[in-house]
Write a structure and sequence with these properties.
Layout: H1 5-14, H2 16-28, H3 37-50, E1 53-57, E2 61-66, E3 73-79, H4 106-122, E4 130-136, H5 144-150, E5 159-170, E6 174-175, E7 179-182, E8 186-193, E9 197-198, H6 208-225, E10 233-242, E11 248-249, E12 252-261, H7 264-284, E13 288-293, E14 301-303, H8 305-315, E15 321-322, H9 334-337, E16 341-350, H10 372-389
Length: about 400
Amino acid sequence: MKDLTEYIIEYAKKLGDYIVKMRRDFHMYPELKYEEFRTSEIVSNELSKLGYEVMKVAKTGVVGILRGSREITVALRADMDALPVKEENDVPYKSRVEGKMHACGHDAHTAMLLGAAHILKEISDELDGSIKLIFQPAEEGGLGAKKVVEEGVLDDVDAIFGIHVWAELPSGLIGIRKGPMMASMDAFKVVIRGMGGHAASPHEAVDPIVIAADLVNAYQKIVTREIDPLEPAVITVASVKAGTAFNIIPEYVEMLGTIRSFNKKVRDYIVKRMGEITSKCAEALRAEAKFEITEEYVPPTVNDPELAEFARDILSKLGVVVEPKPTMGAEDFSFYLEKTRGLYIVLGIRNEDKGIIYPHHHPKFNVDEDVLWMGSAIYALLAYEYLRSRK
C-alpha cells in the first residue's frame, strides 16, 4: 500500500473553503442537545452524496460507514450540539437563533469530520478496513456518547479518535496527552431543612443558611485534608438558594454543585464523605440535610498510551505536537473509551491577532478558521494510518 500522507494533507488544504463554509452554516443555525435535526439532515445528505452507508443513531445522530474487506474498524467522532448562550460576536455568520450559539466549537468538529469524509472516500481503494464516522448529538449534558454505545455502534470498533478545537492552545498546535485528559463529572444537590423564624430571634429558629456555610467549608476540607495532594479533585458549590426577605430565617436551603476527579476511587470516596458530612453536620446543628447525586456519572477521559504515541508520530508530519495540560472539564467521549481503546486530541484555535481569545462557552467564543483543514487532515491521517498499521 502506498504512503498517502502527503496526499491527505494537500487534499485537506484544498477542502479548506468547503470546511469553513460548512462550519459557518452550522454556526448560524445552532441546535441544542437532541434537537440537531437540521444539522443531522445536512450531514446525512453530504455523506450519502459521497457514497457512504448512512444510519441514524441516538435520536439525532448520524453514522457514516465505509466498508472494507478486513474485519477491522476505526471510528472517528465529532459532536454536533450547541449551547443555550446568546452570541455576542459581530461576524457575518453570527447565530441566527436567539439564545443559542455554538460556543464550544462543535460546529467546527462537524465540518472537520465532513472534510475527512471527502478525503477518506477519495482514498477508499487504499483502505482495507472499515471506517465509521460518528456525528454525535448531545455532548453538552445529554450523554449522547452513552446512547451511541448502547445502540451498538462501537461493538465492532477497534479504536476511536476524537478531536476538540482548543481555546487554550495557539492556533495550529496539535495537543496529544497520554492518560487522563479530562476529568469525571458528577452533579449534586444538597437540601438542608431547618426551622424558620424571625431574623431578630435566631435562637428561636434553626438557621439552615449558617449550616450551608459550614457545609461549603467542610466539603473543601475533603479535598485539602483527606485526598492525596497528588490526586487532582474539585468540589464546587455553584448555586445556593435560600430565603425571600432580609428579616426572615428561611425553612430550607438548596445547594447545587459538581465533583471532578481523574480517579474513580477518589470520586467514590468524595461522594461517600460528602453524604456523611452533610447528614452528620446538619444533625449536630439541629437540622436535617440530604445529599444526592442528580445526574449520571461521566467517567474521566483517559487516553490510550499506545495510541497517543502512534498519533504523535503520525501527526508530527502535519504540524507541531505538544502535550496539553489536563483539564477538570468533562467529556462524554469517555463512554467510548470504556467500550474500546481511543484517543482524544485537541487542536489549538487561539489567535490573539484576530481577537480569538475567549474561552469555551463564552458568548464571544470563536475559532481560527484558517486551521480547520488541519482537523480534517488529523481525522483522515489517523484513520488511514491506523488501518495500515494493523495489517
